[in-house]
Amino acid sequence: MSALNPTAMEQGLQTCHGCGLLSRPAAGAEEGRCPRCDEDLHFRKPGSLEKTLAYLIAAAVCYIPANILPVMTTTTAGGSESDTIMQGVVLLWSPTGWPLSLIVLFASIMIPSAKILALLYLVITVKRGSIKNNAQRVRLYRTVEIIGRWSMVDVFVDTFTVALIQLQPLMAVTPGPGLFFFAAVVVLTMLAVESFDPRLIWDSANAKEIQDEVQNA
Ligand SMILES: [Zn+2]
């Protein structure tokens, strides 16, 4: 047990994700159930790194068609035009429309890729047993978590844009296949954030502390 920062896991205690109760598993049982709300208890989210990595790879794969395929098709009397997210950003760029254009650029292109890269960095550093920049890495995870809650903003912006265009007579907008992949990226990155257990960041440092103590004893 590390002297400075003993973790609940080292003390044999488990937190319930359902009700927050801290309890000790019954004698003989490895990981128990919450005595208060009967939720399954784990010291760490099971298969956290593997699940996070799987969701990240799937998100990265979907990110490509999300950007290459058209997200919407605009039909007017003059014909129809299909636009990708990036073409939409360019299309929206005007003296009055630039804030909307920037929101779409950030929400659809920059934030999803930043989220995938940040989580990938966290998975790799934990897997390699890094003990450096722990506090910063936890802060990075929290930031990704907070931003994730706003990912859906883009869907609202797109809907709003479509509604505005629809108001013009003789014009119709239909969603393109890119939108399906974009929605998949949003959902998959959310699942990746949910699967990652930030407590893993501290486990390597604690394990090293214990090792040092054993060696010094
Ligand atoms: Zn509980």
* Proportion in β-strands: 5-15%
Summarize the helix and strand pattern as letters.
Answer: EEHEEHHHHEHH
Oligomeric status of the shown chains?
single chain
Let me know the largest β-sheet: 3 strands, antiparallel
CATH architecture of the largest domain: Up-down Bundle
Number of domains: 2
Strand arrangement across the biggest beta sheet: 4-3-5
What distance separates the N and C termini?
13 Å
Choose one word for the global shape. Answer: elongated
Arithmetic mean of pLDDT: 85
Identify every distinct bound molecule in the structure, by name, code or SMILES: zinc ion
- Low-confidence runs of at least 5 consecutive residues: none
Name the CATH class of the largest domain. Mainly Alpha
Please estimate the helix content.
55-70%
Number of helices: 7
What is the CATH topology of the largest domain? Butyryl-CoA Dehydrogenase, subunit A, domain 3
Structural class: mainly alpha
- Radius of gyration of CA atoms, rounded to a whole number: 23 Å
Number of strands: 5
Question: Could you explain the architecture of this structure?
Answer:
By secondary structure, the protein is mainly α. It folds into two domains: 1-43, no CATH class; 47-216, Butyryl-CoA Dehydrogenase, subunit A, domain 3. Helix content is 57%, strand content 8%. Helix 1 (48-68) runs antiparallel to helix 3 and helix 2 runs antiparallel to helix 3. The chain is elongated. Zinc ion (ZN) binds at residues 16, 18-19, 21, 34, 36-37, 39. Residues 16, 18-19, 21, 34, 36-37, 39 line the site of zinc ion (ZN).
